């Protein structure tokens, strides 16, 4: 089994940098009320090798440090770290193997997004910000048991049907989000909870007015290609 010492200085330098990024981003999950106790995880894939950095399993957020982050290969095998990796490691690894443009994955149990997952419902696209970020509804993926790559398979299967969405609500479990890096995946997780909460509130007031797909496509194109600094 390979260890980090078997990799060159460029890879080891990126591992050091990504460990710092991933450790810091876990603080954002707390800040945006996306997790409780030890639930949830962030990972980021390296550019210099087929490796990823992920949260250790069952460790409280206030105890997380760059050094406690675990380095794994894309089959989920530990390459470096003193702690056992997240129980979702195999699913993160599956996503990276099958979605080569994805370099960040996040899983949370945020309250409103998970409520939609518990009812097996897509979050309908009734907000322009949903068109911007998700390109349509936030889809529900299939029920899968934790501990293998089965959840990752469900995420990939669902996103093939909703290629513009960075988020999947895994039924009876919670949201998984992806991005060009871990920060983008954390942003998608925060946005998922925001729209889940707002669309739940809208349902209490009446029927949600869904945006036509043609307008969603225009919103998404503007947001992805025009909005912000370039």
From TrEMBL:
InterPro entries: Aldolase_class_II_sugar_metab, Aldolase_II/adducin_N, Aldolase_II/adducin_N_sf. The keyword Zinc applies. Keywords: Metal-binding, Zinc. GO terms for molecular function: aldehyde-lyase activity; L-ribulose-phosphate 4-epimerase activity; metal ion binding. It is an enzyme of class 5 (isomerase). Its cofactor is Zn(2+). Its EC number is 5.1.3.4. Pfam families: Aldolase_II. The keyword Transcription regulation does not apply. NCBIfam families: PRK06557.1. This is L-ribulose-5-phosphate 4-epimerase. It comes from Bifidobacterium hapali.
């Amino acid at each position: 089994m390979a260890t980090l010492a078997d990799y060159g200085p460029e890879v080891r330098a990126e591992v050091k940098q990504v460990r710092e990024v991933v450790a810091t981003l876990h603080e954002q999950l707390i800040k945006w009320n996306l997790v409780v106790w030890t639930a949830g995880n962030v990972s980021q894939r390296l550019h210099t090798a087929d490796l990823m950095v992920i949260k250790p399993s069952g460790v409280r957020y206030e105890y997380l440090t760059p050094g406690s982050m675990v380095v794994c290969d894309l089959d989920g095998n530990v390459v470096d770290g003193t702690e056992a990796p997240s129980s979702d490691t195999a699913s993160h690894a599956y996503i990276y193997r099958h979605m080569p443009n994805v370099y960040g994955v996040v899983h949370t149990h945020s309250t409103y997004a998970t409520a939609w997952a518990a009812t097996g419902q897509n979050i309908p696209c009734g907000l322009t910000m949903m068109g911007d970020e998700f390109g349509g509804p936030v889809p529900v993926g299939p029920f899968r048991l934790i501990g293998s790559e089965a959840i990752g398979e469900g995420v990939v299967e669902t996103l093939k049907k909703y290629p513009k969405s960075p988020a999947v609500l895994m039924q009876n479990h919670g949201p998984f989000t992806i991005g060009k890096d871990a920060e983008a995946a954390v942003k998608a997780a925060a946005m998922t909870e925001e729209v889940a909460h707002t669309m739940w509130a809208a349902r209490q007031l009446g029927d949600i007015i869904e945006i036509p797909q043609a307008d969603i496509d225009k919103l998404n194109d503007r947001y992805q290609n025009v909005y912000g600094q370039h």
